[in-house]
Amino acid sequence: MRENPRLKPPGGTGYLAWLRHYRRAWLSGDLTAGVVVSVMIIPQSMAYAMLAGLPVEVGLYASILPLIGYALFGSSMSLSVGPVAVTGLMTATLLAPLALAGTEHYLQLAIWLALLSGVMLFVLGLLKLGFLANFLSHPVISGFISGAAILIILSQLPHLLGLANMPSTPGEMLSRWEPVNSLVLGIGLAAILWLLYARTALSGHLQRAGLAPGAAILLARLAPILVVGIALAATAGWNLAEAGVPVVGALPAGLPAFSWVTPGVSDLRSLLLPAVLISLVSFVESVSLAQSLARRKRQSIDADRELLGLGAANLGASLSGGFAVCGGFSRSVVNIEAGANTPLAGVIAAAIIAGILLSIAPLFGHLPLVVLAVIILVAVTPLIDLNSLRRAWRYDRAEGITLLSTAIGVLVLGIEGGIVLGVCLSIVSQLWRGSRPHVAIVGRVPGTQYFRSTKRHLVEIEPHVLALRVDENIFFANSKAIEQAILQAFNEYPDTREMLLILSAVNHIDGTGLDMLSEITEGLAERDVQVHLAEVKGPLMDQLADTDWLTEQISEVFPSTHIAFNTLGNLKRAPQAEVA
């Protein structure tokens, strides 16, 4: 039975299309997903706020208006936005040189960082610049996230060990082993073991116990909630805080009492580059995730509307006293598996979180910090993408080097340096590939209309016709290499009287490349060799239409190599007479 498209959420068909076409049948799924995701978001948001160097309640503040803002402008039916590990780390790292973590000035800079990021993303969306997502390649993103994940893990080790600060040398580690809080470490290791078991085996055990697969998977993903509940009960029952276990501390009830403080001009100027970086990374990550989720439901997304949605989400975060947000992988997966049909699930989750802030939020003040650290550690460890590094290294060594260098750059040079290094390496690798074009001498496969390289196939050639296929755009970086390849081909076939350039793979010829081709054509004309073209694409033909090279130096342009071979093969010109 075919699925009725009228029962599917619209996904990417216009602003608030999901609301205009909303159906009652979708409400139960959205309601369930909203409840489940709100429960999951609470410990995650608190943990990521701690990672960002902010009070834990700021993570909850950043989980209300962003969900509503994205619902108004975003195009994905399943993406759940909010605080995530990467934006938390970027906020902490980018603001560290500007203010001391934990101060009011630091908080205000984090709010303004979200505000500037939101404005940038929203303006880019209005300008329909969604294609900017293509400027960060997969190796750069993968390397950046892997490096960031390692930094996140290192940043949480003090909380896991019960240390105020992480020792920086082996000697300092030995000298400070005594102060390690064994109770904190025990709680952390127990929580890690449970979360790892939940991630790897709990779902299968629940299914064997008779639970439906969907429910089993969902319960396994909500395992951090059980850790939080047990930790809160243990802290209250056994006075763990008095036993030396650091806890969250006083957590204010109610919605944020936002006070707007405008930083100085120098601070705003210092925030511009961090805002650009955090905007670009969060957009690329969110779009990639949204596309993946949309494919699962046979829907589509609009990159320009994703810019608007993320911009509105970050503006909402700043207006509610939060920090920068983007699409979260784990919460989005839980959202879709819990039955979310539209962004209404996010609006419901935001309402529930607001209700919790107004009522029972102070209870979370008894939560041990080590539990939040463990949630972060287990969440980010899979982000160290060794599989992508292995695949890239085997398939394309240049991409593998870019991925590895970006990760190392993040660790050694910091977030800005790592991203810039990765982007530069991507550009250099593309220029290097483009500067080494493949130029093939081709002939006809016997009895067919197909033409293949003479070095790879047994083909037929015409003695006086040299057919060259250029498999790359012709531009300044490779024009000399193409010129040398053409001249080398003439050395191999000295009886050539007709040269056929097959441009089926060429989409663009820049000015340097055109000058090179014109000089070669002029030199060949002096040797009584005519130059012809074949399979020139329409846009390239439009580009060449008014050039002297095409109108005055090219003898004929053929629609196909087959026609060119038939025509030139039957053309018998007498060789040029030698001049005494």
The rough form would be described as: elongated
Number of helices: 23
Radius of gyration over all CA atoms, rounded: 31 Å
Structural class: mainly alpha
Helix content: 55-70%
**Sheet with the most strands, sense and barrel status:** 6 strands, mixed
InterPro entries: SLC26A/SulP_dom, SLC26A/SulP_fam, STAS_dom, STAS_dom_sf
Organism: marine sediment metagenome
Pfam families: STAS, Sulfate_transp
Protein name: STAS domain-containing protein
Write the layout of secondary structure elements.
Blueprint: H1 17-20, H2 27-51, H3 56-61, H4 65-73, E1 81-82, H5 85-95, H6 104-126, H7 138-161, H8 170-175, H9 182-208, H10 213-221, H11 223-238, H12 265-296, H13 303-319, E2 326-327, H14 329-337, H15 344-358, H16 369-380, H17 386-395, H18 397-434, E3 439-444, E4 451-453, E5 465-470, H19 479-492, E6 498-502, H20 511-526, E7 530-534, H21 538-544, H22 548-553, E8 554-558, H23 561-569
Parallel strand pairs: 5-6, 6-7, 7-8
Antiparallel strand pairs: 1-2, 3-4, 3-5
Helix pairs in contact: 2-5, 2-14, 2-15, 2-16, 4-13, 4-15, 5-7, 5-12, 6-12, 6-13, 7-16, 7-17, 7-18, 9-10, 9-16, 12-13, 17-18
